[in-house]
Amino acid sequence: MPEFPHLSGALVFTLFETTAVIAAAVAGMILAANKSMDIIGAYALACINAFAGGTVRDLLLDNRPFYWMEHYLLLVVILALCIPFVYSARIFHLASEMHRRSVVIDAIGLALFTMTGTGIALHQGRPLIVAALMGVVTGTMGGVVRDVVVNEVPDLFRPGGLYATASFTGAIVLIAGIQYGMQYPEASALGIVVVVALRLLSLRLGVTVPAPQWAARDRAGEP
Amino acid sequence: MPEFPHLSGALVFTLFETTAVIAAAVAGMILAANKSMDIIGAYALACINAFAGGTVRDLLLDNRPFYWMEHYLLLVVILALCIPFVYSARIFHLASEMHRRSVVIDAIGLALFTMTGTGIALHQGRPLIVAALMGVVTGTMGGVVRDVVVNEVPDLFRPGGLYATASFTGAIVLIAGIQYGMQYPEASALGIVVVVALRLLSLRLGVTVPAPQWAARDRAGEP
Amino acid sequence: MPEFPHLSGALVFTLFETTAVIAAAVAGMILAANKSMDIIGAYALACINAFAGGTVRDLLLDNRPFYWMEHYLLLVVILALCIPFVYSARIFHLASEMHRRSVVIDAIGLALFTMTGTGIALHQGRPLIVAALMGVVTGTMGGVVRDVVVNEVPDLFRPGGLYATASFTGAIVLIAGIQYGMQYPEASALGIVVVVALRLLSLRLGVTVPAPQWAARDRAGEP
Predict the structure, then answer these.
(1) Domain extents in chain C
(2) Do C212 and B75 touch (CB under 8 A)?
(3) Are A89 and B222 contacting, i.e. CB atoms less than 8 angstroms apart?
(4) Are the Cβ atoms of B159 and A89 closer than 8 angstroms?
(5) Is pTM, for the whole model, over 0.90?
(6) Residue C88 is nearest to which of A126, A213, A215, comparing CB atoms?
């Protein structure tokens, strides 16, 4: 992990990171509910959605211990969250309601995971393209593994608002900021703003990555 | 691996472990038959079902060498088993017949994999919640990877008899036993009994993990 | 990597390896087009198809750094290739046309990946059965991960021309050659010829692995 010169920066960072993990876990539980899984499925999807992105990154960068093993208390917290979520109708409805309005929370999660992933790779002196990709992997692979496990083509790979593109752009902003002499906290704050803004604006304005030329073929109804 | 004070304990353990691996391999072959795969698919699913749980655990705990690399003779044995299984109608029917009645074998496999996974993590001084989860991962992830590869939502995540819950409870029993001063062989024997009993009783009595509140919604036919 | 006594051998090898990676990447892009994915999906499938086999092998053998991290320029090249592929109708059609006729290129890729995988495992002194399996893993797992991600039962596990069998046979030829005193370049050249010949002949002559006995049952329409 990059070192923080100011304690307050590290504190804010930890707070944000924990928020992102919990939000991703709850999103995993909601998907488990939609798939009529039992509590085991809910716990598994919660952990996958919260930790798989960082775990894939750590496997690829050969980092140990994994985040969830160092912060294993989060495994207990998520288990504790599963029980009311699964068995209390009130809390389930509250969570799904919040989740439906949670594009902002999700975008912040994407941004934070991107910044931690890129930062860790930079700190280890990886090539810049690898660092940017590790940010995208950390931000998006949780959802990809989750979708593969529940047997769907990953959302990420299908047309929609900017997601991986927002993450990649934010990673580039962080890298550029550090190359031009900014400290990690400032550069990552800038990166977070860019990711969240790109994600939310693309959803509001209906912007997607430019349509591949085969989209035209699909619309024309050719085979 | 935890050390065994008595040679006989280690011998029994190895015998049980090998049995569990072979039984899981045969179960993988039977699934390949149901999916009309060829012998390559049969061998791949056999190896995945037998070794994927332990391999995921070893990746997560950063253990090397992997079990199947240390005991690579098992790779040859499973390859040798595939050939009569795939090409001899008699052996195929015998195996499927045995497998259909093999809830007991499967439950023992789950129990043994749980005990080895938890034991290895304990031996490395991991946090207790991580040790219990590693037991569950070792016992169940083979089946999850197998189901994902053949393109089904993992059985494990859908309502049914106790499976991960039985594994988790047995892991807790092993951990508690060791915390209270029991030796590994005794504590794991106790854990095995608990896993097998929970699994078989839950199947016989129709016990599942308590139904999530969304099950009610599903039964009522709401969207 | 095994050491090459002659520089020219290493040069030819690198050239072949790069060709195999690029061909696999383009094949991944074409699949993304058939699945109507966007450019993110195209880039992800290209990287998965090109690098997942080697990455799984390196995870299993605990090799670092990964191939794509050492040769990260390839990540940039594939990204650059995606853009014309996705947005230029002419290049897309050219690539799909080439791909349709590319059984030869694909067979060479399989052969090369098999030789590098087996060679690396041999160089590390792994057991011979493990070395042969690592060759097959390197040659075939890219396609398996790709198929799992796009939610299909892996092609590899279904009846068809010889594929894993060709790869396995070539790995055995390489291993036998080295055991009988050949140098790596000569033995692997022999192995490449065997893989390509087996693959192409099996397709031309309609040879498959001998039909499992359950195929008879399927043909008879039994359940």
Answers:
(1) 7-209
(2) no
(3) no
(4) no
(5) no
(6) A213
